[in-house]
Amino acid sequence: MRLVPKRIHCVSCEQRLWVAYHAQRTLMTFRGLVRLRLVVWRCRNQGCDLYHLPYRAEEEGAWALPHGEFGLDIITVVGQLRYGEHRSIPEIHQRLVERGVSIAERTVTDLLERYEELVALHLADEERVKARLKQQGQVLLAIDGMQPDVGHARALDSPRLFVRRGAAGTHFAQ
Ligand SMILES: [Zn+2]
User: Fold this and answer.
1) What dihedral angle (degrees, nearest 10) is formed by the CA atoms of 119, 124, 127, 131?
2) Which of 29, 34, 84, 157 could cysteine-pair with 71, CB 3.0–4.6 Å?
3) 13 CA distance to ligand 1 centroid (A)?
4) How far apart are CA 121 and CA 108, in angstroms?
């Protein structure tokens, strides 16, 4: 599976990004072992704030956490079995093995911790967004890159906060 960043221009200076190197990851998923070949890009503009910073494919985050060897599909199921169905670690381990996942029981405990971190991060992120929205008087939401209505935007008092949710996460622009 070859993953290439969708973004081709630097978020800071808007110049074209260049291929820096290729990376490889092998993940255990419910579909078996998946090898990701990642094309990593960099900004070559030496005057840019993001000079030399790697851009990895946005899609990579949908497959796995950084440095993780197991896919998010498996981590999600571990969390669902524990908190949705109140299964014990040995029971969860058994289920995974039945579904063809080769995994040690102690690794199930690690994956459950990753799941708990993800849930905590998600909740903290929502709280942060709510707090920011409260702080700002007027708020416009532009979802998935949709441009907010300009006439409407001008009519509102500043400061304004634009929240855009995309594949690469949540971006703030004031
Ligand atoms: Zn740049």
Assistant:
1) -160
2) 29
3) 4
4) 20
pLDDT by residue (tens digit) across 109-146?
Answer: 999 999 999 999 888 888 887 887 776 654 444 333 44
CB-based contact 100:89 (threshold 8 Å): no
Q: Judge if pTM exceeds 0.85.
A: no
DSSP 144: G
7 CA distance to ligand 1 centroid (A)? 12
Where along the chain do its domains lie? 1-62, 64-136
Q: What is the distance in A from the centroid of ligand 1 to the CA of 136? A: 29
For ligand 1, the distance from its centroid to the CA atom of residue 76, given in whole angstroms, is 35
Question: What backbone torsions phi and psi does residue 150 show, to the nearest 5 degrees?
Answer: -70, -45
